[in-house]
Amino acid sequence: MKAVLKKVSPPPETSFTVRKDVGENMRNSWHYHPELELLYIKKSAGTWLIGDYIGPFHSGDVVLIGANLPHSFRHEDTFIRTQKGQSGEAIVALFKQDIPDSTLAALPEMRKLTHLLSLSRQGIKLEGNTARKVAVMMEDLPELSPGNRLLTLLQILYLIAESGDYTLLSTQYFNYTPSHNDNHRLKTVIAYTHKHFRGKLSLEEAAEQIHMTVTSFCRYFKMETGKTYVRFLTELRIGYACQLLMDTDKNITEICYECGYNTLSHFINMFKLITGKRPVEYKKHFK
């Protein structure tokens, strides 16, 4: 199932879109858009698919989804087809990254916010007290004047950035684009890995690209990224496998070999390690 580009047009008097979806209007397909999405599940439950992450959602959940990150929310029928007044409800804000970036990114006080927007490309689920506070603020968002709506959105983003009370959902390199802030050596090895991960790729080969011994390379990569190179390579391959499962009709054996694995059993084990599901189970969620 290929993700569909969804166009969003805010009203002429505002720079971003806020809407309240109720019942049938909460339905959506596997899609993406250049705007970031802040979503508050006021009343519903189901399964959400964000990048290569699949997991349950419930009333009270809040997520921030980055630009162009494919996603879909499968609401349980009881929240879609119930009588008026009993249907599920969600509040959505869709905004372009240049809204906070253009006015605030240069300020040192906003470094955490800039970092948050970068992390949103993985999908962010708010936790604990932060989720509860943001939910209350989003309740009022649709009724505010355009100016107060913008101020409240910025307050919400700042609150999330300052609290750090959130969980990243999709694997880091599902939609990876090297940042201008990544150092040159890391860019080199990541670009090389993206080019060659579908074939045989050893630690020795990766280390050679930046003229390091394997031991030094492993230490360097872990220090720079917070994970081992083997883990990064596995996430990249499985992230690509997830895209093939969603966007093509290829069978699991074909996908296994296309993602750089030589044995189906090893591929299935690695897939379950990263996603928590076997490839067949993962694909069923997209039918």
Automatic annotation (TrEMBL):
Ranges where the HTH araC/xylS-type domain occurs: 187-285
One Pfam family from the record: HTH_18
Record-linked InterPro entries: Homeodomain-like_sf, HTH_AraC, RmlC-like_jellyroll, RmlC_Cupin_sf
UniProt name for this protein: AraC-type DNA-binding protein
Keywords for this protein: DNA-binding, Transcription, Transcription regulation
Listed PROSITE patterns: HTH_ARAC_FAMILY_2
Top-level taxon in the UniProt lineage: Bacteria
Gene Ontology MF terms: DNA-binding transcription factor activity; sequence-specific DNA binding
